[in-house]
Amino acid sequence: MYKVTRPTLLLDKKKAIQNIERMAKKAKASGVNYRPHFKTHFSKEIGEWYREYGVISITVSSIDMAVYFAGQGWNDITIAFPINVLQIEVLKHLSKQVKLGLVVESIEAIEVINTSISDSVDVYIKVDTGYRRTGVWHKKVDDINEMIQSVADHHVPKGLLAHFGHTYRENQKDRIISIFKTEVGLLNALRDQLGGSLLISVGDTPSASIMKSFEHIDEIRPGNLVFYDVMQAQIGSCRYEDIAVCLAAPVVAVYPDRSEVVVHGGAVHLSKESLLDSEGKAYYGVVVLLGEKGWSAPLDDCSVISLSQEHGKITMSSKEFEKVKIGSILGILPVHSCLTANLMKEYTTLRGERISTLHQ
């Protein structure tokens, strides 16, 4: 195990690769394209791990991320975020380098693409089937058809793209399966009304992880599953032993009278994403012990109960508290690994190898 002296995001490479391989095999068995979302890790080195399992097309969440991965040799990139028309000049340049997929939800955005980008791009209509974040409501068939016709004048109307983000609010597998099947049904009904030629692309880690196979879709775009996290474990998408990242945090203060410790590991490291325990109290990560080969299962009755900028306050069982002293290193499994990775900006493998990201 790498020696830790400051807050460090540890990465278990073996677990991450197992997570990638599992999903790649499931997608292949179902005959769907696996276009993983790279917004979770945003790292050129981790991106290379996917190539070993036949991945040739990727998803990103920003134009800057698309530029970064285009520079790493990825030449089939979908930006699964409504286009920022203020960056159209960057998109124009990017469209000359790669097979570029853009997501739209308005005629206005399509007009900007049509008038500004001369090289052919794939355009996906963002469809809202129930999440109610972004996208054209699936029942607005005439509006969607008008958008497709406008795209076809200059570019390729590639598909219907959706994100079933409401699966993240569930923790019952049957409910997640029901959401997936219902939303896929709505997308297929819409495609039939539009003529049946568009592909269907969906992306969320809970349903991608829980579904045993994928029918009636063409593409999956899960991202978080490369690392997973406490949220996904609570949802039922993974086991705790599948979580591939852990924040190593030095203990800086101990309080025997209340069985609490403070670590150097706060909101600037973990984010303030939280979950509720059985008593309705918020927690910001679960505590594990670090060892030579990684980390333990979550410790009973030990969790991060509050965060400030640099401080993390942890409550511990009396049994575990007795083992901790100032200078100890505790591990924290993050509630949301995407945000933790974004804040930490780099990874350190269990062997001490540093892995860079877009932000370095």
Structure description:
- It contains 12 helices and 22 strands.
- It has 360 residues and is an alpha/beta fold.
- Strands 1, 11, 12, 15, 18, 19, 20, 21 and 22 form a 9-stranded mixed sheet that branches. Strands 2, 3, 4, 5, 6, 7, 8, 9 and 10 form a 9-stranded parallel sheet that branches. Strands 13-14 form a two-stranded antiparallel sheet.
- Helix 5 links the parallel strand 5 and strand 6.
- Helix 5 packs parallel to helix 6.
- The radius of gyration is 22 Å and the shape is elongated.
- The two termini are 24 Å apart.
- The mean pLDDT is 97.
Tag the structure with descriptive keywords:
360 residues, alpha/beta, 9-stranded mixed sheet, 9-stranded parallel sheet, 12 helices, 22 strands, elongated
